[in-house]
Design goal:
globular; 6-stranded antiparallel β-sheet; binds 2,5-dihydroxybenzoic acid; 348 residues
Length: 348
């Protein structure tokens, strides 16, 4: 059905408009189509890619220009131009940053309301201590630092360590609920508290009592996730997509409450068509190379490259290799959208 054209602001007499403004009033009809466009939203989020080889020298340069004490978190934010770079948003709800920690450096303990995860990009010897649990950081590992939990980053190795931060900061900031509390270095109470959750199908239950921690597993080792993907590919060759979700092992639900995380294996030569969904998506290549295409945009991504695609568009990924798999880390805001009842999948 065609939509009738609505009255414009300019159609109203200036003195009437001035009277409205004086009382903090705004007529809806000139803006109605902008806030409720027909059929699908008009996202600010623009399909955007960030090339790791190109940003890496700038991140290392930040290591020379700004000592850790002057940065607290030495991060270059992957900002979406559709939102304006100063907003520091990859999408409406997702913040992405590449964080550098140099050997011997220390990013002090703090806790904040936004939830974060780290996807380790390069280097060894660094660790994040979350709620007293020391989590080593290796390429491809996912480490959660959920809302309210103390976290600090340290580095005992001898090469730079870089990781991708994924936070729901834009969402929590929009809610005017974003703030931080600075703290003292944590006492490490364990470096393996979550290890008992690493095997699917069983959870700790001492004296028949299940755990009650909201975030029982803080580190998802890439070696395990990679093996799960390869097992899935081998045992279910007809599966539509070789994909696993990062979940809370106590509940089986999403690992975090606002953003959702999964890992995807593109089999050699595979073309994968993802249906249009209401969520914007972030793709970060862990291993291999793939193209990511949506509407008029197409990006060729290699290892450590990252891109963001707005919601409501079908997406096609094509593994660039006919011989090797490609492994991709995926983030979206489906957990939030599902809770709010606005989540949609649009199959053709
Ligand atoms: O490492 O705690 O990219 O607090 C932005 C805010 C990282 C962190 C970011 C943060 C952190």
């Amino acid at each position: 059905m065609s939509m009738p054209e609505l009255g414009r602001l300019e159609d109203l007499p200036q003195d009437y408009r001035d009277d409205l403004t004086a009382q903090n009033l705004v007529p809806l009809w000139p803006s109605l189509r902008a806030v409720l466009p027909p059929g699908k939203p008009a996202p600010r989020t623009r399909a955007t890619a960030w090339n790791y080889a190109a940003l890496r020298p700038l991140l290392l340069k930040a290591g020379e220009l700004t000592p850790i004490e002057k940065a607290e978190r030495r991060v270059l934010v992957l900002a979406n131009p559709g939102h304006g770079l100063e907003k520091m948003q990859a999408s409406s709800t997702i913040y992405l940053g590449m964080q550098l920690l140099l050997p011997g450096e220390w990013a002090p303990a703090h806790r904040h309301t936004p939830n974060a995860v780290r996807m380790i990009v390069e280097g060894t010897g660094a660790y994040t201590t979350v709620d007293g649990e020391k989590c080593v950081m290796e390429r491809g590992d996912l480490i959660l630092t959920p809302t309210g939990l103390w976290h600090e980053h340290g580095h005992d190795g001898d090469q730079p360590v870089v990781w991708l931060d994924v936070l729901d900061l834009p969402m929590v900031y929009y809610m005017e609920a974003a703030y931080v509390t600075e703290g003292n270095a944590q006492t490490v109470t364990g470096d393996a508290a979550g290890m008992a959750y690493q095997r699917g199908g069983v959870v700790p239950a001492p004296l028949f009592v299940r755990g009650t921690s909201a975030y029982p597993m803080l580190r998802y080792a890439w070696a395990d996730v990679r093996m799960a993907l390869q097992t899935l590919a081998r045992t279910q060759p007809n599966i539509e997509a070789v994909q696993v979700a990062y979940v809370n092992p106590e509940t089986g639900g999403d690992a975090q409450k606002i953003l959702g995380f999964s890992a995807l294996m593109l089999r050699p030569g595979e073309t994968l068509n993802l249906p249009a969904r209401s969520t914007a998506l972030v793709f970060h290549v862990i291993e291999g190379a793939t193209s990511v295409s949506a509407d008029a945009s197409s990006f060729a991504l290699g290892a450590a490259d990252t891109c963001c695609i707005p919601g409501y568009t079908p997406i096609t990924l094509v593994n660039a290799s006919a011989a090797d798999p490609c492994f991709v880390f995926v983030a979206d805001d489906a957990p939030l959208q599902k809770k709010l009842g606005v989540y949609e999948v649009r199959r053709p």
